[in-house]
Each structure stands twice: as C-alpha cells, then as structure tokens.
Amino acid sequence: MTAPAMVAEFDDVAAWTADAVAQLGAEHAIPAACRGSASPAALAWLAEACELAPGTRLLDVGAGAGGPAAWAARRFGVRPVLLDPMPAACRAAARMFGLPVVLASGTRIPLRAGSMDAAWCLGVLCTVADKAGLLREVHRVLRPGASLGLLVVVAHDPRAPAVPDGNLFPTQAELSDLLDEAGFDLVEQIDRPGDAPLSWSRRAARVAEVVATRHRADRAYALAARQSESFTRLFDSGQISMQLIHAVRRWAALTRAEET
Ligand SMILES: C[S@@+](CC[C@H](N)C(=O)[O-])C[C@H]1O[C@@H](n2cnc3c(N)ncnc32)[C@H](O)[C@@H]1O
C-alpha cells in the first residue's frame, strides 16, 4: 500500500505544480516537474551515457510530473513514453507536456517485450518495495543492448536510517546485486553530478512558492513538506547519497532467476 505521505508528495503536489505552471508560464514546467532532484547536469550525464538520439524510444518509469522525459524530448529529440502509478501525476504530465503517459506500476508495464530503446528510472527505486520486480519488467520491455539510466538514492548504513514514510533505500551492494540479477550490466556510476544553475532553480522555486501560497493549509502539503525535510536531513548527515548509474540490458540475457 502506498504511504499517505508519498501520495501527497507524488500525486497532490504534481497536480498543484501543473496548476502553478499554468499561472506562471510554460517555461517553468520542466524545472518544476523534475521531482527526482535531477539537475540539468545530471540529466545531461544520463542522456549522454545512454546515447539518446532523435527518435530513441525512451521509457521513463516512475516519470512523475514528466520533467526529465520532457527535457530529454526537447534537448535530445527522443520519443518518450511516461509511466507512473499516480493518476494526478500522469494527468499533470499530460497537461504540461502533451507526452504519451501510461498509468501503471513499473512492476507491471503494459508494453511489449523488447519494444523500447532505452529507459530511465529517476528517484523511483527507493520508493518501491519490489525493486527486483520493477527491474525485471524494465528488462523485459527493453531491447537487448539497450541502456538504462538510473538516479538512485542509496543508504550508506545497511541498518536502515529513519526513513521518510514509505522509502526503502537500497545499499550500494543491494543495488549492484539487484541490477545483476535482473539482467543488467552496470557500466558506470557517479555521484555529485553538479548543481542546477540559478536560471533553473529560480523557476522551480517560483512554482514552489505559488504551491505553498495556495496549499500551505492542506494536510497533504504538510506531509509532502515533512518528506522533503527528512530527505534533506538524511543527505546532510551523509546517511544517504544520490547516485547516477548507466547500465545496459545484457544480450545473452539469462537472469539468475531464469538460470535456476
Ligand atoms: C521522486 S519521484 C520522481 C519522479 C520523476 N522520475 C522525476 O525525476 O521527476 C518518484 C516517482 O516514482 C513513482 N512510483 C512510485 N511507485 C512506483 C512504481 N511501483 N512504479 C513506477 N513508479 C512508481 C511515484 O509515483 C513518483 O512519481
């Protein structure tokens, strides 16, 4: 079951974001709709690592309000498909960017096997209990040799820190095993991809101000704000960190599960 704080953070705030963008102007949409904390530098690293190009069929699993996929469409000419289980987030993404959106969980992706050229999954794995199931599904819908770009928040202490509601951070070792078992080779991994420039963060901040002004009294706003404060505390204390990963779907892809 999805924690109420996650519904607030991913669904309610997504809808409010689309409303605020409608008031402020479309140039605010992409920075405000990157809810997995990816900066332009992080997105560029992932796009280059995955060798995105005009026409690439990019599946964004857990696309949220759609900022990263819209950025990839605009900067790299990809043809994105957005997938998210939160209805208001899907509506917000469709409204702000007019991109194809699928309302579904990443653990049951309603797409044909081998139908996508690349996938992104940004800030999603730590919100999903069945990480192995999600990665297996992403593996199934990717063509052999396709790239997977991940932004993952990892825990540095295997004893889980006091996490924000609903989050289950993998450790680095768990993450590496999960990728391997799902049939992915980890090609490269970095942290500290670089901060967003002011031109970007100012637009995101303006949207956040409008959302705060309109919804500060809502219970969902308080829940989402508490989530975000917990994240900041965990990052600041060094208990968790953000990792960018480029992995590739193995060709002769017998997963460990298939081998047994
Ligand atoms: C931190 S947000 C990141 C959104 C987006 N990837 C971005 O970077 O802006 C995490 C997203 O994961 C989605 N999510 C949660 N459970 C999921 C699942 N089982 N399958 C796919 N997405 C899921 C949430 O609805 C939310 O939109």
UniProtKB/TrEMBL annotation:
<dbReference type="GO" id="GO:0032259">
    <property type="term" value="P:methylation"/>
</dbReference>
<dbReference type="InterPro" id="IPR013216">
    <property type="entry name" value="Methyltransf_11"/>
</dbReference>
<dbReference type="Pfam" id="PF08241">
    <property type="entry name" value="Methyltransf_11"/>
</dbReference>
<protein>
    <submittedName>
        <fullName>Class I SAM-dependent methyltransferase</fullName>
    </submittedName>
</protein>
<keyword id="KW-0808">Transferase</keyword>
<feature type="domain" description="Methyltransferase type 11">
    <location>
        <begin position="59"/>
        <end position="148"/>
    </location>
</feature>
<dbReference type="InterPro" id="IPR050447">
    <property type="entry name" value="Erg6_SMT_methyltransf"/>
</dbReference>
<dbReference type="GO" id="GO:0008757">
    <property type="term" value="F:S-adenosylmethionine-dependent methyltransferase activity"/>
</dbReference>
<keyword id="KW-0489">Methyltransferase</keyword>
<dbReference type="InterPro" id="IPR029063">
    <property type="entry name" value="SAM-dependent_MTases_sf"/>
</dbReference>
